[in-house]
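This part of the workshop introduces the protein records we will be handling. As an example, a complete record with its sequence and its structure tokens follows.
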Amino acid sequence: MVINLDKSAELDEQESVFHKKLKLKMKEKGKEGRIMVLKDYLDYLIRNKKTIPPDFPTFVREIMGLDDRAGFIHIRIWHGKSELVEFAINKDYEYRVDHYD
């Protein structure tokens, strides 16, 4: 019998079970702001030699269709260490990660 005393591993497992919400403040409001987010995300992927996700067209449709809440868009993510959070940090976006309502 193995007993895991490392609580951080347990927390990581719990964290990935529930969706989180990335609240990303667009640099411009409206359609132009959404397009800028997508351009910045592609730039981030290419410059950091990351693979473009196979569901990227779905992601584009999602970003273009999200509600603009005072300049913020809410993107569903699995955990606070998501690649989208890394992107927000890398591209100097104002953001916050919350539990999904």
In short: The beta strands are 20-25, 72-77, 95-99. The helical segments are 7-17, 30-47, 56-65, 83-90. The chain has a mean pLDDT of 83.
